[in-house]
């Protein structure tokens, strides 16, 4: 595909986090960018403020004449979240427009760069954003395509041009085997837990796709994987506390503001000393180690690694402190898999061992809820008070016998209820709140502002 020969890029699902990063990239490169999404959001509002037209009607009124009259110079990019029944998707197909999945386009725009990709069923966004924060402190030119809004970069897309070699930072998404369209030079694998079992037949099938992805990398020592969380596929292992890994940490101080640590080699020698990641939690420390090791191997100086970790302010909806008072804490997080729930709940309990946790959780996808029903029940039983919201379906149709009410019956808890989202604020008013968590990957983020207004 020769993108240099095109001038118009139309995005179907432009409000998605990965799609909007690409839309911003093409807009900055001088392409004429437009797009459709089902509903407006903070992201679509921001895109329009940046000069990108966004439409919300699934008909030809959402397509500028520039596209309709010039199909040979136009490219349509779509996401798997777009339904096969979408009118625009079928119109473009029927009229022979050049059409590409988001992952194919991302592979094309990063193909001639030195690519650093972060793969894994959990931790991709935080780890890749830490890599971007480190590169921001380096002398290198780079573009970052992130799966979340970096507080440091104020966006999910960032570009720095210092001349010379150009690096790209991407998330390698295993869903739909999308990451096989990339051409990685270096990679971090954060985890290979079972997930997306609507795409993969089983965990082994998923792990095999990671093997295919890593086979795209020519140098084994350019691969870094989290020991005990990612299957050993060759390369360099790292861990927070397992001294049998090639690299591990020695922690000097840890609290709600972050962790001060050294990275040590398996020989026992300190590899990089006196690092500080300004995010709490063991999982964030592990993400920082993987990011630091890959950046060092790619040629980034230790001073930039140290500064990038110190200055990293996190990702919106990743262990994000919304309200932080002595008498009340409110933390919002994207956790939508049992392993992610375990990570944040255990981190909060370790940081605040004598406080009561109220969690609001919105399951994401019927298939994921069905596949991990028991695991969800186990992890959600570890909070003091639980509020379950109905399942967020995203691209899926309901599955008989799969619901939040069914999940609730499996949870070993005396104080757990299931209510619709529009009843949450009134319900919270009758509770005594100490620590509040909102958890999930659907539209639960729409509760953040109302909760802040009531308690901030």
Structure notes:
This protein is of the alpha/beta class and 456 residues long. The protein has three domains: 3-101, NAD(P)-binding Rossmann-like Domain (Rossmann fold, 3-Layer(aba) Sandwich); 111-311, UDP-N-acetylmuramoyl-L-alanine:D-glutamate ligase, CATH 3.40.1190.10; 320-455, Mur ligase, C-terminal domain (Protein-Tyrosine Phosphatase, Chain A, Alpha-Beta Complex). Helices cover 31% and strands 25% of the residues. The chain has helices at 17-28, 42-49, 65-68, 87-94, 102-110, 124-136, 203-214, 282-297, 302-311, 338-351, 366-371, 373-380, 404-410, 424-429, 448-455; strands at 8-12, 32-36, 53-55, 74-78, 98-101, 114-119, 141-150, 155-160, 166-172, 186-189, 223-226, 236-238, 247-255, 258-265, 270-277, 320-324, 329-333, 357-361, 385-388, 416-418, 435-439. The chain has a seven-stranded mixed beta sheet with strand order 8-7-9-6-10-11-12, with helices on both faces. The chain has a six-stranded mixed beta sheet with strand order 16-17-21-18-19-20, with helices on both faces. It has a five-stranded parallel beta sheet with strand order 3-2-1-4-5, with helices on both faces. β1 (8-12), α1 (17-28) and β2 form a beta-alpha-beta unit. α6 (124-136) crosses α8 (282-297). The longest helix has 16 residues, at 282-297.
What's the short version?
The chain has 15 helices and 21 strands.
CATH superfamily of the largest domain: Mur-like, catalytic domain
Low-confidence segments, ≥5 residues, pLDDT <50? Answer: none
Q: Major sheet, described briefly?
A: 7 strands, mixed
CATH class of the largest domain: Alpha Beta
What share of residues is helical? 25-40%
Using the coordinates shown, work out and report the CATH topology of the largest domain.
UDP-N-acetylmuramoyl-L-alanine:D-glutamate ligase
Shape descriptor: globular
Number of structural units classed as domains? 3
Instruction: Give the name of the CATH architecture of the largest domain.
Output: 3-Layer(aba) Sandwich
How are strands sequenced across the largest beta sheet?
A: 8-7-9-6-10-11-12
Question: What is the C-alpha radius of gyration, as a whole number of Å?
Answer: 22 Å
SSE-based structural type: alpha/beta
Percent strand: 25-35%
N-end to C-end Cα span:
50 Å
Average pLDDT confidence is 90
User: How many helices?
Assistant: 15
Number of strands: 21
